[in-house]
Amino acid sequence: MAVVLVVDDGAANRQLVQAYLSGIDCDVRMAENGESALEQIKADPPDLVLLDVQMPGLDGYEVCRRIKAGPRGRLLPVVMITALNQTDDRVRALESGADDFMAKPVERVELVARVRSALRLKALYNTLDSAEQVIFSLAAAVEAKDSLTEKHTQRVAESARYLGARLGMPEVALDALYRGGIIHDIGKIGIPDAILLKPGPLDAAETERMRSHVIIGENIVRPLRSASSLLPIIRHHHERFDGRGYPDGLRSREIPRLARIVSVCDAFDALVNDRPYRARLPVDQALALLIDGAGGQWDPEVVELFVGEMPAIHRLGAA
Fold first, then answer.
1. Bridge partner list, 3
2. Which of 54, 57, 152, 313 lies most in the core, judged by the most C-beta atoms within 10 Å?
3. Reported pTM
4. Domain 128-315 top-level CATH class
5. Higher-confidence residue: 261 or 135?
6. Could you count the other beta carbons within 10 Å of the beta carbon of residue 100?
7. Taking the chain, what is the end-to-end CA distance rounded to the nearest angstrom?
8. pLDDT, tens digit, for every residue of 175-220?
9. Where in the chain is the domain with CATH 3.40.50.2300?
10. Could you give the residue range(s) of every CATH 1.10.3210.10 domain in the chain?
11. In sequence order, which residues have a C-beta less than 8 Å from that of residue 20 and are 6 or more positions away?
12. In which order are the strands placed within the sheet that holds 26-31?
């Protein structure tokens, strides 16, 4: 059973979080301060830490830094929860190594969704062999290059897995959607920052170089035990339903189904989040673009499902 460590100096807050998580199959443990939390983590590491920021003694930022500094803490998800809601507070939390950030008062539905997402990611890390750990760490390094893409791949992974489940796909396919979503852009590790972070449009040569990330990613991931299910996602998530995509110009059902699902989730998340070359779009405008591109850029069946499931996807943090 997964273990969630709740760290908060307020007994009422700890009990509230425990009550919210009663519907999740997990063991909830408590710590009333940072020192106690670090001792528990050292003695018996949990699978997730829900960490308050404002505590006497060690504050949440310092506790998070110490967790992430340890060899076993690097892949331990930490969600920071605080009444502070300024952008600077969120940035400071992320700079301390936090994997996610929630503002008080915490809503039960959101907390449950975030916890399930974090535990799913930790379960994935627990199944990886050493080679896979390196590759998944590389995928995280790609996102670390640009603060604007923070958590992008996890949101894509969660929403893709959700859509796969709604389509009645088997567990092996759902696992591939989640893993593939996490590492679909790993090939960008081989793209120069001058191109990745360029604030304006790419020229023809830069566009061609950027497009090579799908081939680079495919070559990086090929040695994995699970490569056979992941490679089609990595190579083909930029194909278009009308055949005008890359790298192979596949069209319609020629495009692997898992890649068609990830493509829609990837596009939507990019549209509703800031990028170096443009500001984010409102959710309704992004959905309108997906609908307009159904049958051209994207699989119309996947777009229809995505739009219809938007409220649930939003709760997953995909928006």
1. 27
2. 313
3. 0.68
4. mainly alpha
5. 261
6. 22
7. 29
8. 999 999 999 999 999 999 899 889 889 999 999 999 999 999 999 9
9. 2-120
10. 128-315
11. 106, 108, 111, 112
12. 26-31, 2-7, 48-52, 78-82, 100-103
Positive or negative torsion for Cα 9, 12, 13, 19: positive
List own/partner pairs for 161-170 with CB under 8 A and 24 or more apart: 162/309, 162/312, 162/313, 162/316, 162/318, 163/261, 163/264, 163/265, 163/302, 163/305, 163/306, 163/309, 164/258, 164/261, 166/305, 166/309, 167/261, 167/305
Two tokens at 68? Answer: 């992430």
Is 314 within 8 Å of 109 (Cβ atoms)?
Answer: no
- Name the DSSP class of 252: G
> Hey, what are 149's tokens?
């893409």
Nearest to 188 by CA among 258, 237, 116: 237
Residue 106, CB-side half-sphere exposure with 13 Å CA sphere: 27
Q: Is 70 exceeded by the pLDDT of residue 147?
A: no
224-228: long-range contacts, CB 8 A cutoff, minimum separation 24 = 224/131, 224/132, 224/135, 225/129, 225/132, 226/132, 226/176, 226/179
- Give the Cα separation of 136 and 264 in Å (integer): 22
Residue 120: what residue type?
R
Average pLDDT, the chain: 89
50 SS3 class: strand
Q: Comparing C-alpha atoms, which of 142, 102, 152, 179 is closest to residue 271?
A: 152
User: Half-sphere exposure of 269 toward its Cβ, with a 13 Å CA cutoff?
Assistant: 25
Residue 2, both tokens = 């997964």
CATH architecture, range 2-120: 3-Layer(aba) Sandwich (3.40)
Encoded tokens for 11? 């007994």
Q: Where are the alpha helices (DSSP H) in the chain?
A: 11-20, 34-43, 60-69, 87-95, 108-127, 130-144, 152-166, 171-183, 193-196, 204-211, 213-221, 227-236, 257-271, 283-293, 300-308, 310-315
- Peptide bond before residue 199 is cis, with ω within 30 degrees of 0: no
Q: Residue 116's closest CA among 180, 24, 22?
A: 24
In angstroms, the CA 189 to CA 220 distance is 10
